[in-house]
Design goal:
Structural class: alpha+beta
Mean pLDDT: 77
Oligomer: single chain
Shape: globular
Length: 303
């Protein structure tokens, strides 16, 4: 007799996690935060970075003009299309979004050697023109290096990062520590370790009043730590783009740490006004019968 066919309860599914587009150690780029609209925030951040990183390609214009003079129109069109395609591919490689696994927080990796230079260019232009460049993107922090979220990895990463900024002249510094979805990294130990490294390079002093010339940024996002050293952290309003241009944040629904904040949308304002009118009408309609006998009782008690 033929053997009975075995039942198959579905094919096995293999879940291959693609970590190419996730935040990992040994990366550099920009840590962006928003209150809502992560996709719109990502688009705004990439468009803003591309706007300020574009450089005029004079050589391509010269080659096109010379080819047109020679009369080879088809060749000039092909050359122009090739140059545009190369430029688009280069732009896509310059800034690539990476998922952090944390809501309202995303990372954009870059191939730039120093992301801080590009960030200063953006902030100085916004401070000078007072023009609001973004609607959803709030903060954009340049990150020079990422490592694993533990004290040993952070200390080893800072040994190669800090000497570039603190081995020349005595200056004031501060350390800004923030963590998201991670409570295993002790804040006090990290600050003490980094402060000891800075002091070992020279006679640097701590300034916690907000006017420190150099600021060490430590952003712990799950199992990855983002490190950077920036200047004028207080001047640029903690790298908040809306505050730099002089406009307050509006329509905030959920904060970075998950705290629910009051919304300033017109619909909610109308509801609050209607509720206030209803309460006032109820107070006016309430009878005053209870207050009158109380006054009589007080008068008899005095007599």
């Amino acid at each position: 007799m033929a053997a009975r066919p075995t039942k198959s309860y579905g094919k096995k599914k293999y879940n291959f996690r693609d970590n190419r587009f996730n935040l990992q150690p040994d990366m550099k780029g920009f840590l962006c935060t928003c209150n809502y609209g992560e996709k719109d925030c990502q688009k705004e951040a990439i468009n803003l970075l591309r706007e300020y990183s574009e450089e005029k390609d004079i050589s391509s214009k010269d080659t096109i003009s010379t080819v047109e003079e020679s009369g080879e129109i088809m060749d000039s069109l092909d050359a122009e299309l090739e140059s545009l395609s190369k430029k688009d591919n280069a732009d896509w490689k310059k800034f690539t979004p990476s998922a952090t696994g944390v809501g309202n927080c995303l990372f954009i990796s870059t191939t730039f050697e120093d992301p801080c230079d590009l960030m200063y260019k953006i902030l100085e232009d916004i401070e000078r023109t007072k023009v609001q460049k973004t609607k959803f993107l709030l903060r954009m922090l340049p990150i020079l290096v990422t490592c694993k979220a533990n004290i040993t990895s952070i200390a080893s990463a800072c040994t190669s990062l800090l000497p570039k900024y603190f081995s020349t002249e005595p200056t004031t510094f501060a350390i800004m520590f923030n963590h998201r979805y991670n409570n295993s990294v002790p804040r006090d130990k990290v600050i003490e370790e980094l402060a000891n490294q800075v002091v070992s390079f020279g006679q640097h002093t701590v300034d916690l009043s907000g006017g420190a010339k150099m600021t060490i940024i430590v952003e712990v996002v799950k199992s990855v730590c983002c490190l950077s050293v920036v200047r004028d952290y207080g001047r640029f309003c903690k790298f908040n783009l809306l505050s730099v241009c002089g406009r307050p944040e509006k329509r905030t629904v959920e904060g970075e740490n998950g705290d629910i904040e009051k919304s300033s949308s017109p619909k909610i304002k109308k509801e609050e006004e209607n509720n206030q009118v209803k309460e006032n009408n109820e107070v006016e309609k309430t009878p005053k019968t209870e207050s009158e006998p109380r006054e009589e009782i007080t008068e008899t008690s005095e007599n």
